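Give me the fold.
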Amino acid sequence: MEMPLDSSVDLNDLGELVRDVLHRRAEALSQQLDEETVEQLVGILTFAVHDEWYAVRIDRVLEIYNEYEVTPLPTVPPHILGVINIRGEIVSVTDLAALLQLSRDEESDSPAIVVGGEDSVTALLVDSIGDIVEVAAESIEPPLSGIGKTQVEYIEGSVSIGERLVALVNLDTVLEPIGLAD
């Protein structure tokens, strides 16, 4: 609707017309936002253990180590290989393959992903590091029913990345201090 701009135009009418146009535009935009689903993305770091692919949420990853020396500890569960010193901080080393009861190729030169929670930190020993990927939060599905009972408590879900099915590690359970799990 075009209005001629001459001296006969009442500024009050023009102001009302502008408010009306802006109001209709705002309504149209709000309807578009309601109809669109806003997709929440989750960043994950993928890695391999044996021949299987796993991932951890990237916001829990502190760093990745390739060269370290593990100091063994007595009387700890078999999946705790010992501790490493990271700039003066003593960090436990968790063999994810042993925790998930998977066979492991060779332990030497395996990268370690240092992950943390509110109260604890550990270095997860893995076979190889994959990529950092963003996935839709809705695409993370419950753990597969085919995984073993021992493994299911350490897996929070699974997600397809390309043609690969990746299990998302439940870091809350992995980082739970020894002796507190029931």
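The first strand starts at residue 41 and ends at 49.
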